[in-house]
């Protein structure tokens, strides 16, 4: 019995030593990894866990995170707007500016601008002005954009004949129009077609049509060379109150003019030279008399040939002064008119002016010159005088626009002893948008007519106001009032007239 107890004690002692030795073995299982101890924070990513289990990477340089094997792919940082792309590296800040004597506030602003406006930043585009929400979009026909419109107005004229104490009449005015432009990167082809017809209720003898059509094109032969072509047609009548209209006229005679222009423009850096040649044909229809007969106006028909030279120099961008000289010759179909006078003549008009294109706020052209016209008949005095032409558009603001126009021309005459009439006209129009759909307009016009050989001088003045209400891009309503006066040094021809108009306009 004692022997058995001793053997059992020895076995238990041996078993305890084995257990202690096993506990101290490196293969002892444990809930905590001594190489990767648990932390109460953000869990490491998969790559870090794999590296911690497999041991440190011999290619890694300490704990800096640099991987020379390229096995770990990292996303490259995208450059911010205005920052140079340096392969994912941030752009270095520019060197500090040199010392300045400016106050600290100004110097601080300069440093801020230098840091946040790198030299290779993209250029900022200018702000585009807001477009007119009611402007017609037009109709596309191939490579052309067509903008047709028609306006029908009903009105009242207190003196349609433009004579002293004239009778009043209601009338209807129809005005169709078509504007066409090509949509090409080079060259250009366009057309402006406009017509009108006035029909008076109680004075049908004053009914008159009018039309003005122009087709023009530009050929860009090179960057500095271009060719200009133009064809034109106009239809009209003598204006009421003209000395050329006799008292026995029952219907105003209709006149037509058609012709063309061909020109070339060449640029030499800032210098621009241009030359044009023109040819026009004017023809008058027969006059209907009050007794039912008609009278021929063939002695008023003539051809006109002319040329023009211009030289301009662009001193500053958008401002180009120029000098111009124009000459023409008029040859009538009949050598002698109804009064036995030779009406052939030659004209010469030198002028100076400038063109404007200043940031689209002031665009157009203005010029002044001196016109001289010599007649073949020695009994006709030379027609001469100062002339001015202008077509300027000033965009004062996004809501207000002012337009200045001026024109001068020498008109033919059939009055005995009168060489012709030098007519000068100037107009100013101001448009203001009270709302995008409500446009107010003020108009002022002045004209001066000088009849050479007759001693008559007429001054014409007009004031007008109009309001247009636009329902949408296609439909609008317009109301207008205009007051006209004419004062002359010849007694018995002064007149005044009041005109009211109310119409609708359809456009695309």
What does it look like?
There is one protein chain. The protein has 508 residues and is mainly β. It has one domain: Maltoporin, Chain A, CATH 2.40.170. The strands form two sheets. The chain has an 18-stranded antiparallel beta barrel. It has a three-stranded antiparallel sheet with strand order 7-10-11, with no helix packed on it. The N terminus is likely disordered.
Name its key features.
508 residues, mainly beta, Maltoporin, Chain A, 3-stranded antiparallel sheet, 3 helices, disordered N terminus
What general outline do the C-alpha atoms trace? globular
**Into which percentage range does the β-strand content fall?**
over 45%
Question: Number of helix segments?
Answer: 3
- Named at the architecture level, the CATH assignment is Beta Barrel
Order of helix and strand elements from N to C terminus: HHHEEEEEEEEEEEEEEEEEEEEEE
Task: Quickly name the level 1 CATH class.
Answer: Mainly Beta
Distance between the termini: 127 Å
Largest sheet: 18 strands, antiparallel, barrel
CATH topology call: Maltoporin, Chain A
Poorly predicted runs: 1-5, 11-32, 39-62, 100-117
Give the total of domains: 1
The counted number of beta strands is 22
Characterize the quaternary organization of these chains: single chain
Q: What structural class do the secondary elements suggest?
A: mainly beta
Rg for CA atoms:
44 Å
């Amino acid at each position: 019995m004692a022997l058995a107890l001793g053997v059992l004690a020895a076995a238990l002692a041996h078993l305890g030593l084995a257990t202690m030795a096993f506990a101290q073995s490196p293969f002892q299982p444990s809930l905590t990894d001594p190489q990767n101890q648990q932390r109460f924070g953000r869990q490491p990513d998969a790559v870090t866990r794999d590296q911690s289990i497999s041991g440190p990477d011999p290619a890694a340089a300490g704990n800096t995170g640099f991987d020379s094997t390229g096995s770990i792919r990292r996303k490259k940082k995208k450059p911010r707007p205005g920052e140079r792309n340096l392969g994912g590296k941030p752009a270095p800040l520019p060197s500090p500016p040199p010392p300045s004597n400016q106050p600290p506030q100004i110097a601080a602003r300069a440093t801020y601008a230098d840091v946040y406006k790198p030299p290779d930043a993209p250029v900022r585009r200018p702000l585009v002005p807001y477009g007119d929400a009611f402007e017609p979009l037009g109709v596309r026909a191939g490579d052309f954009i067509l903008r047709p419109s028609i306006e029908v107005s009903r009105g009242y004229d207190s003196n349609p004949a433009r004579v002293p104490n004239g009778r009043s009449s209601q009338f209807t005015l129809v005005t169709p129009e078509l504007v066409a432009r090509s949509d090409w990167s080079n060259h250009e082809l366009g057309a402006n077609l406009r017509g009108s017809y006035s029909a008076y209720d109680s004075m049908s003898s004053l009914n008159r049509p009018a039309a003005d059509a122009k087709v023009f094109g530009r050929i860009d032969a090179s960057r500095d060379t271009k060719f200009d072509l133009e064809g034109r047609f106009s239809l009209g009548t003598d204006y009421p109150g003209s000395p050329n209209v006799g008292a026995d006229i029952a219907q105003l005679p209709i006149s037509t003019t058609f012709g063309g222009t061909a020109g070339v423009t060449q640029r030499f850096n800032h210098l621009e030279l241009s030359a044009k040649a023109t040819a026009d044909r004017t023809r008058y229809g027969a006059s209907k008399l009050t007794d039912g007969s008609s009278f021929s106006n063939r002695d008023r028909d003539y051809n006109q040939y002319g040329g023009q030279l211009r030289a301009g120099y662009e001193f500053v961008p958008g401002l180009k002064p120029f000098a111009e000289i124009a000459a023409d010759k008029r040859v009538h179909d009949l050598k002698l008119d109804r009064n036995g006078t030779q009406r052939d003549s030659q004209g010469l008009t030198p002028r100076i002016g400038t063109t404007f294109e200043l940031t689209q706020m002031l665009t157009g052209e203005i010029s002044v010159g001196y016109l001289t016209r010599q007649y073949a008949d020695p009994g006709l005095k030379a027609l001469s005088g100062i002339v001015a032409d202008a077509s300027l558009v000033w965009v004062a603001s996004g809501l207000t626009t002012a337009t200045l126009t001026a024109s001068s021309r020498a008109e033919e005459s059939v009055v005995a002893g009168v060489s012709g009439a030098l007519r000068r006209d100037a107009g100013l129009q101001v448009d203001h948008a009270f709302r995008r759909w409500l446009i107010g307009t003020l108009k002022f016009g002045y004209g001066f007519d000088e009849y050479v050989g007759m001693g008559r001088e007429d001054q014409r003045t007009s004031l007008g106001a109009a309001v247009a209400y636009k329902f949408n891009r296609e439909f609008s309503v317009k109301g207008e009032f205009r007051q006209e006066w004419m004062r002359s040094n010849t007694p018995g021809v002064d007149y005044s007239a009041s005109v009211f108009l109310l119409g609708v306009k359809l456009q695309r």
